[in-house]
Design a protein that fits this description.
alpha/beta; Rossmann fold; 2 domains; five-stranded parallel β-sheet; 5 strands; IstB; ATP binding; IstB_ATP-bd; ATP-binding protein
């Protein structure tokens, strides 16, 4: 293929917003010429290049909207460091059958045992499988609920969450919340619990939630929604962060 033909095709692709083909058409054409492939095979490779780029861009957009924490690759999850998550159980969770069946997960355990890491990793798997999934802390959820009527950004986030297949709520009941806020949170969960799965991470048992909310009636109603179709996962072990604590000083004699 002549250079002027490559440039012409590249310009056409830019006008059609086929950016991946525009960027790689010369390389693909040279490879096709060297291999002596058919025109149909060449056309197929061009389209596959564009589709791959678009899929990667779409996944990046979904991950940004999900607000996944930096640590979310379950390939790095070490089952030997935590009690309560054997490899077979982790594999079963990664298959997402529980999400297809609209089950919730409550991941309990002390600080540092990998609750958030596990929840974020499962959220990432859901995104890769085509589900609408989001990762939010309890504080972020409450901010969205409190400000959605006065903030365009909060309302946009609320609408996204309302259409989710999966919502991770990290560190639920970490801090006390006012009764009015607890009521708003209950209505949020109540509106979604039959069509959305939740992953809850917490270092408090459900029985302790009433102390944080300060209202036993709301707590009971909230637990009724979350625990009806739910798997409770209890993790234990030494804090990963404390076991791998960093220091600015080297080893001393």
């Amino acid at each position: 293929m002549k250079t002027k033909d490559k440039h012409r095709i590249s310009n056409h692709c830019k006008q059609l917003r086929l950016s991946a083909i525009a960027d790689q058409v010369e390389q693909l054409a040279d490879t096709a010429s060297a291999e002596g492939i058919s025109y149909l095979e060449f056309a197929s490779r061009l389209l596959e290049t564009e589709i791959t780029r678009r899929n990667l861009n779409e996944m990046a957009r979904k991950e940004k909207a999900a607000r996944l924490p930096a640590m979310h690759e379950l390939r790095a999850y070490d089952c030997t460091q935590t009690e309560g998550m054997p490899p077979a159980k982790l594999q079963q969770l990664k298959e997402l059958t529980w999400l297809e069946q609209n089950f919730n997960l409550v991941i309990m355990g002390p600080n540092g045992v990998g609750k958030s890491f596990l929840a974020a990793g499962l959220c990432h798997y859901a995104l890769q499988s085509g589900y609408r999934a989001y990762f939010r802390t309890m504080e972020q959820i409450m901010t969205t609920l409190k400000t959605r009527d006065i903030s365009r950004q909060a309302m946009a986030d609320y609408k996204k969450l309302s259409k989710a297949h999966l919502i991770v709520i990290d560190d639920i009941m970490m801090i006390a919340i006012a009764r009015q806020e607890a009521n708003a949170f209950f209505h949020f969960v109540n509106a979604l619990h039959e069509k959305t799965s939740f992953i809850i991470t917490t270092n408090k048992s459900p029985k302790e939630w009433a102390e944080t909310i300060g209202d036993e009636v709301i707590t009971t109603a909230l637990l009724d929604r979350l625990l009806y179709r739910c798997e409770i996962i209890k993790l234990s072990g030494e804090s990963y962060r404390m076991k791998n604590r960093k220091t600015i000083f080297g080893k001393t004699a």
